[in-house]
Amino acid sequence: MSEHKSTRPTGRLILLLGDHLTLTISSLHDADKDRDVILMAEVDEEASYVPHHKKKIAFLFSAMRHHAHLLKQEGWTVRYVQLDDADNLGCLQDQIGQELVKSGLTEVVVTEPGEYRLKHGLMKWSEAENVSLVMRDDTRFVCTHVEFQSWAKGRKQLRMEFFYREMRRKTGLLMNGDAPEGGKWNYDAENRKPAKGDLFMPRPRQTPRDTTTEDVLALVTNRFSTNFGSLEPFWLAVTRGDALLALEHFVQTALPQFGDYQDAMLSDEPFLYHSVLAQYLNAGLLEPLEICRRVERAYYDGDAPLNAVEGYIRQIIGWREYVRGIYWLKMPGYADSNYFDANRPLPAFYWTAQTDMACMAAAITQTHDHAYAHHIQRLMVTGNFAMLAGINPREVHEWYLAVYADAYEWVEAPNVIGMSQFADGGLLASKPYAASGNYINKMSDHCQRCRYDVRQKTGANACPFNPLYWDFLIRNEGKLRGNPRLGHAYRTWDRMSSEKQHAYRSSAAAALEELFD
Ligand code: FAD
Ligand code: DLZ
Ligand code: SF4
């Protein structure tokens, strides 16, 4: 029961967004089931601000409908607007306005949206319409905005590793008093193994679908027929209960090898030992600390090794919290960063997978089929290629925001603009994640199936990543030569004969012409 109930004369309209799907969301903290009304709406504006993958839209709409059902069962008054309802006005602001008129309520409560675009859109709207809007902190994160700002203040470099140690201390995860479990904070050095195709490879839990999901799949088929991606197979969890089962399934089948094969890629294994939980976590079906505590327990119960458990926990309380901190520290403007002035348009094959580069075709096909690709595919294949080829980072950013079921700008933009494109000039990464074909060959089975030859450095059959790697370093020499972590690469370049250098540059030009035809 609300502590404000007796002092509040009327109820309030509580807006729950598509990624606010938890009963513990802060907008409900002091809400009153007798007087408050919850509004949830499937709207065109949110479904189209980038051309989202069909599966992402279906996942979110089905999860929203299931959550509305749960809220009603819990005794809340819920006004749920479906995309095809006659009174659907197409955008959240208009939908709130309509509901305020209908209900006679005058105050709106919302948990801070995860994207700057929507947060400021709602704030501007409430000012223009003179509507009282209360925006609550999103308490689903370990680190608050204020804590991140004070950690970042005065630091020349914002490195994740030091932030992560603070989060370990704050949460007590894998801590022995003040010391990290096992004596080291980070076990990444043990986590770089290539994977072998294996009959017994784990698969993410396949959630059976119900009639609500079937309805949503029909709606998406009908309304978003030209969007990227395939709806089938659709096995994502759309309720908290099923997301918890997916977590349990991951812990039991894949976590023990998560660390060892975290960076590996196989053409026929999109998921390997990854958890495939980010879409549930980001939408609110799971909470970061409950995942981390479950994974930590697997270590103490002797069910998973420390390199896997530490590596996994680092992704969530380290990277995930850190990128969110960077996003809110640097927005607006961050998503338009373009340190290298890269202006090549995104090639069509990012949408069609029609390319002879086997690694790119595999990552894009998996993305098309599952609205998923794992971290190394995003970073070292599609991201690496885009940076080496000089594709405009804004276009790259919009592609990533559209195609993954877990993509929201607060987490996607720092990963794309900062980590994968180095478009923020090194705020997030100490050096660009640039690599030639050798890295992809070492970590995957793609090159064995490719029409290009990864061992050839130049010429028409050379793996395009090879000349593009050097071309990128030399094109951007003025901005990168001073980077101490690239000293070795520039010294190698300097030792090459001018003929070899010329061959790299002209092969890169030919590859770009062929690939961007
Ligand atoms: P696992 O490999 O099992 O990792 C466990 C969890 O750790 C993930 O579920 C996720 O919550 C978290 N995590 C891991 N790495 C990161 C990271 N770098 N940043 C934030 N959280 C992380 N993640 C998103 O959630 N949404 C995005 O839109 C997104 N875009 C990305 C774009 C690029 C270019 C790159 C390089 C990474 C991106 N990531 C994004 C991070 C990461 O790739 C995904 O979180 C991960 O692939 C999701 O799959 P999983 O659940 O199987 O993760
Ligand atoms: C991603 C998304 C989509 C596709 N559709 C909706 C929607 O119809 N209604 C809604 O409330 N939220 C949707 N979302 C999630 C929002 O875009 C998300 O809340 C913001 O981007 C902030 O993270
Ligand atoms: Fe990718 Fe080059 Fe290997 Fe082909 S040869 S799969 S383009 S890294």
How does this model look, in words?
It contains 22 helices and seven strands. The chain has helices spanning 44-48, 54-73, 92-103, 116-129, 145-152, 160-171, 211-223, 240-253, 255-258, 278-283, 288-300, 306-330, 349-352, 358-370, 375-389, 393-403, 409-420, 437-443, 465-475, 477-480, 487-495, 498-515, and strands spanning 13-15, 37-41, 77-81, 107-111, 132-136, 175-176, 179-180. It has a five-stranded parallel β-sheet, sandwiched between helices. A two-stranded antiparallel ribbon has the order 6-7. Helix 4 links the parallel strand 4 and strand 5 (132-136). The chain is globular. The chain starts with 12 loop residues before the first strand and ends with a helix. It binds flavin-adenine dinucleotide (FAD), ligand DLZ and iron/sulfur cluster (SF4). Ligand DLZ binds at residues 17-19, 41-43, 46-47, 52, 57, 60, 113-115, 118, 408.
Quick overview:
With 517 residues, the chain is mainly α. It has helices at 44-48, 54-73, 92-103, 116-129, 145-152, 160-171, 211-223, 240-253, 255-258, 278-283, 288-300, 306-330, 349-352, 358-370, 375-389, 393-403, 409-420, 437-443, 465-475, 477-480, 487-495, 498-515; strands spanning 13-15, 37-41, 77-81, 107-111, 132-136, 175-176, 179-180.
